[in-house]
């Protein structure tokens, strides 16, 4: 029979068929790691209107462009001062191997940025942003006082409204001890905090954390992007110094696929809503915004800052810099092809999202000692340091070309949108027009 | 060692906590009398020094939160989350407590001489709690380790999603939560309850207490459960 008669259904396409067959066979929904794979409008749909006659650029190799970033200026006696506006998102020891946490901690320290603890407590390898999560695994006042900032996690982009999940195969004796739970059980991290519920309570909770730390360090609130405008206003009203918004492309160590692909909104509109909330409450310059979820390049960072973010946070991209989804690892110094290990998971280099299995072929999301040995913390730190530096160089390159001597001077007016969807979501003019869908009619009038 | 009187009608909570965090050792303080709490929140949070603190009156949320070493007594009622994330020491409430007593407490002892509202001992991670009266619904939710001793009755859904914490109830249990089950008291249980009651200063026999623990059916995900737990 000719292939022209083999017409695929748009409704029951190959992906839908495979999903139904798998659900029917196993009676289980799919759990996986990393973030949304579906195509959504992103920072790639924006471009910079760099300088020409109407704007004056800075010389790329001679004139300085500042990337120093200060977070937590509202109440903290000791705001966080970073060399670059690119931070590392919360990823737990448990979800990540100790080698991965060490590599991230080393790289962040070398570059001069912050790393974040994640669920499961603070390891010796890291400092800086200490998360207060609903589970409170390992949470204690000593680590709290050691931290340079505190992040109250309300939600995350991969699963806003959902709790955490650490499957039993990753609950090693060390992980179990840090979480005060039995080894090998499927650990559920609660989706709500145990000691407060609404924002009136949260206000008092924030005051408690400030009292315990003598008002020294900034307090962040992290939210998964869903009703961002109202959530950011409530976070500000509750007393946050910094609001972290994690878009739907943000990653996770393990959650239901239905959450990853069908809950929350993309990073692009989430950032715009957050900035509008900040503007409405007249808090620009007082409360800082950190955006995360699918940030990969210096261009992404520059566009986020131009839209009004004060900093970005990366998670999955940092893991990729360590070697996530790479065909090779450096096991004991020897270069080794680990394609067969990906295949054993039903994956392949470039397509793996099997963080939840604990069998990461490159030693990043595992607690198996022989797999963890495949990631050398020093080499991982070198790679992540390089990646962070490259992103920052790209950021300042674009900022200089826009005539800015400080990356935080980038502005929405420096951007144009390439698609109608991105123009509407980011409220940036469609390239070559004065049109912002939803704000103007097609003539560009309000 | 000397006794210091700090009056919250004259000091702010910030001034009080700053004193409690930084000046107890240098001034050789052994006892702190905190006057006129008037329902204020976050009194005596983050203590890390072996003192006695007496809060004379009703107090608000998060009293003695994250306590380490200190013995804090409230002569009145308290709001939400008293002794939240307690690490060690003793927090005692002479009156009643609102919700979330000793939420996520890691160590130490919290004593409520009156009643405690809902979610008492939620997410507890190794602390001990003794309640002289009754407790509200969803108490012991996701409690991981430690002991919750209740001399009175327990509200609905006791011990829902329990891990390895133990709950002992002297009165009636309205209903058990998901994956919680009642088991016979052992000699060790009687000894443990008796010791905790003694530490709490309660002259009550352990004889009629019931033991509630995790059935451990939720320790591994079961797709066949269909939310029937």
Spell out the blueprint of helices and strands.
The complex is a heterodimer of chains A (446) and B (229).
Chain A: H1 14-26, E1 31-32, E2 46-48, E3 69-71, E4 80-82, E5 86-88, H2 98-111, E6 129-132, H3 141-146, E7 149-153, E8 164-166, H4 173-179, E9 187-189, H5 199-212, E10 219-224, H6 228-238, E11 242-246, E12 255-256, H7 257-262, H8 267-280, E13 288-292, H9 298-307, E14 311-314, H10 316-322, E15 328-331, E16 334-337, H11 339-344, H12 369-372, H13 377-401, E17 415-417, H14 420-426
Helix pairs in contact in A: 2-13, 5-6, 6-8, 8-14, 9-13, 10-13
Chain B: E1 2-7, H1 13-22, E2 29-35, E3 52-56, E4 71-74, E5 90-93, E6 109-112, E7 125-131, E8 145-150, E9 166-169, E10 180-183, H2 187-200, E11 210-214
Parallel strand pairs in B: 1-2, 2-3, 3-4, 4-5, 5-6, 6-7, 7-8, 8-9
Antiparallel strand pairs in B: 9-11, 10-11
Q: Brief description of this entry?
A:
The complex is a heterodimer of chains A (446) and B (229). Chain A contains 14 helices and 17 strands.
